[in-house]
Each structure stands twice: as C-alpha cells, then as structure tokens.
Design goal:
single chain; 434 residues; alpha/beta; Rossmann fold; 3 domains; six-stranded mixed beta sheet; four-stranded parallel beta sheet; 49% helix
C-alpha cells in the first residue's frame, strides 16, 4: 500500500507541476482597475504604510500570508535530504494551510548552513509575512531556532514538528484516556524518540496535568535519566533534552524501549520509520487497556494490527489510510487561522491546549470509539472551532492585537475557510482544475 501511494504521488505531482499557484482575489474588469491595484493609485497605499507600518496588515495580503521555512535537514522520515527535496513537503503543507485554514502559505526551503544564517534569512523575510511555520529541521537546532525567532520577531513563529505534533497528540490522548477510563495524572507514558516532537509533547503533557515522574523518554541511546554517561555532554549540547532527563522518570528506569514500555499505560512513538521499532511483545508487557500512538512517517513504528494483536486497546498512527490519524494537519491550519485573525504576536502553550481540547471535544460530540478518537481532516468544521478557541485564548492572554471572542472568531474563520473550500470546488466543477 505504501509503495502504491509513492507511485501515485510522483505521477500526480508530474501531471500538475506541483500543488499550489497564486490567483487574484480582486475583480479585473477593465484597464482602469490596474490604476487602482498598481500605478498610480498604489502610491497612496505605500504612503499610508510608510506613515504607519501596522497599516500593512490592513492594506495588503500580509495579514494572511505565512512562510513555510525549512533547511531540509530532517524531512519526514527521510533525514537530511536538503532544501530542494524538502520543497514538495513544504508545498503540501501550503496546500493544506489554504484548503483547511484559508491561510496563504508560501514554501520557502533555504540554503542555510548554520543556525545564525537561518535566523538572518527569517528575520529578513519578516516584512513579507504574517507568520512563520518552521518545518523539518533537525534536532536540537530546531529548539534553538524556535526559541530565538519567537524572541526576536513580532509575528507568530511556530515549529510544526514540535508544537503541531504535540497538540495533535494531546487531542488524541484526551479522548483515548476517556475511552479506557484513566486520568492523565495517573498514567505512565513512554515516549519513544526524544527529538522535536516528543520533547515538546512532554512539555505539553506536563502542562496539561501529566506528572513529570510518570514520563519515560527514550532516545537512540536508551532511556533518559540523570545518571547516563552522556548527561554532561547533553547539558551542553542539548539543554532541551537534558531538562527532561533530569525532571522525568521518577523510577530511574534504565535500558531501552522494552524497559520503558513495561507496565506503561501509554506509548507515544515519534522516532524512526518502522515497522519493527516497537515489537509486539513490548506492547504485550504494557498495562491493561494500553494506548499505542505509533506516529513515525511514512511507516509507523509498529503496524496497528500488530499492536492490537498484542493487546493494545486503542492504536493511532500518523497516516490517513489507518484509523485515528494523529497528525499535525489537524492543528496547524486552524492555529494559524486563529492567530492571524487576531494578529497574535506569538503562539503560547495555552493556545495549543485550547486547540487540543476543542479538537477532542469535536470528536467526542460526534461519538468517540476505539477507531475514532480525533476528527478526520475531511471534517472541516473542526478547523473553524479550533481557530475560534485559539483566537479566544490569545485574546484572554493579551497577545492579540485585535482581541476577539470565541463566537466572533467562529464566524470569521467559518467565512474564510468555507470560501477557500468552495473556491476549489468551483475550479474543479468548471474543470479549470482537472
């Protein structure tokens, strides 16, 4: 099945020459319209922005444009394949941004050899963008870039592999725990992989109520704990991972993945593509009604049917062709929709939790069960509600330049997202897009 998707993807990309394009959103009826959109009329628009730079968000498309930036150093499960090979992934991200969030996103893979070069490019692009989505950047560089750019830019900066995956994971876990009758404060959670996704997932889970001591993180060298031989090196080279080596794993477990999973209630895999990274016998060693999130792409750490055969009650992957897709595609279009509409200056963890809770609530209202713990990407109304929750939280935290209530943003987001979806439907119906 995976090989089938590979082949279809290459054929489709070749046929269409990519996935996105730019189309005008203003009427062009005669030559006189160009005197409004361009010269001479445009001069007054520029003058007004020069007097008050904030007017750029009202008089241009910048309010709704984000850049999808990457250096191509950690693309999907493919590793460091470079910015050119990262372009189709960034373009796919831009397609989802537009279709499900109404956000105009531009793929921007860049040749940056050092973090400082990357930061220089991002800062130079700020006047063109309403926000920045960082994507597919190796760890620990991604942590540094996110922290630094959030600190120095006045627009929302977000790293989807960290924040997006963590938010989607929390949304799924909220409902999975409801189905098995367990509380997040009680469960033992093994996080397989200690890169961008699971480090931020640990952060969000703790903020949501998980006990730090109940988290057990595993990297390529084994379980994180304070007595590891490389702990001093970790402190210097990866302080983000070091923090969780010190604060988690109250039992001081040692070993690898099987030791981390034994007696755990939840396992969250965000490591390397499988299958076979997580073995059936390790799932069988978990507590009753185990929850298994195998999120590696393009192939999960363990096939979902294998996890079920080993006794897992609820299984999720990152793929759309299996039940329970825990994927950041459920999150990033809506988070940016809400953030852009209130002109947020940043994206806080509380905004992420609000998004996760709204996603979980949407699915619960539909009727959650073992194979439906989060909405599907086709249920586009969830993006509207999620955007409203994000905007309302940003407003309550005073990080919104234009504060809006949940209900106010609900109508704005619904109008923008439905227009985006309907536009594509019309283009397909009229065979402008075959």
């Amino acid at each position: 099945m995976t090989e089938k998707w590979y082949q279809l993807s290459v054929e489709t990309h070749r046929r269409y020459g990519g996935k996105i394009s730019v189309i005008p959103k203003v009427p062009v009826r005669s030559i006189e319209d160009f005197a409004i959109y361009y010269t001479p009329g445009i001069a007054e628009v520029s003058r007004q922005i020069h007097k008050n730079p904030e007017m750029v968000f009202e008089l241009t498309s910048r309010w709704n444009i984000i850049g999808v930036l990457t250096d191509g150093t950690r693309v999907l499960g493919l590793g460091n394949i470079g910015p050119e090979a990262a372009y189709p992934v960034m373009e796919g991200k831009a397609l989802i941004f537009k279709y499900l969030g109404g956000v105009d996103a531009i793929p921007i893979p860049i040749k940056a050899q050092t973090p400082e070069e990357f930061i220089f490019v991002a800062k130079a692009l700020e006047p063109a963008l309403g926000g920045i989505n960082l994507e597919d950047i190796e760890s620990p560089k991604c942590f540094y870039l996110l922290d630094k750019l959030r600190e120095e830019l006045k627009i929302p900066v977000w790293h989807d592999d960290q924040q997006g995956t963590a938010t989607a994971t929390l949304a799924g876990l909220i409902n999975a725990l409801k189905l098995v009758g367990k509380k997040i404060s009680d469960v033992v959670i093994a996080l397989i992989g200690a890169g961008a996704s699971n480090i931020y997932t640990a952060r969000i889970l703790i903020k949501y109520g998980a006990k730090p001591g109940n988290l057990i993180l595993v990297d390529s060298k084994g379980i994180l704990h304070p007595e590891r031989d490389d702990i001093d090196k970790m402190m210097l080279e990866n302080p983000w991972k070091y923090k969780y080596a010190i604060e988690t794993n109250a039992e001081r477990r040692k070993g690898g993945i099987p030791e981390a999973m034994k007696g755990a209630d939840v396992v969250i895999g965000a490591s390397r593509p499988g299958p076979g990274v997580i073995k059936k016998e390790w799932v069988a060693s978990m507590n009753k009604d185990a929850i298994v999130f195998a999120l590696a792409n393009p192939v999960p750490e363990i096939w979902p049917w294998e996890a079920k055969e080993a006794g897992a009650k609820i299984v999720a992957t990152g793929r759309s062709d299996f039940p329970n897709q825990i994927n950041n595609s459920l999150i990033f279009p809506a988070v940016f929709r809400g953030a852009l509409d209130v002109r947020a200056t940043t994206i806080t963890d509380e905004m992420l939790i609000a998004a996760a809770e709204e996603v979980a609530k949407f699915a619960e209202e539909k009727g959650i069960h073992e194979e439906y713990i989060v909405p599907k990407m086709t249920e586009w109304e969830v993006y509207v509600r999620e955007a409203a929750a994000v905007a309302a939280m940003a407003s309550s935290q005073r990080v919104a330049r234009i504060p809006r209530s949940y209900n106010e943003e609900l109508e704005i987001a619904r109008s923008i997202i439905s227009k985006s979806i309907k536009t594509l439907e019309i283009l397909m119906r009229e065979k402008i897009i075959e």
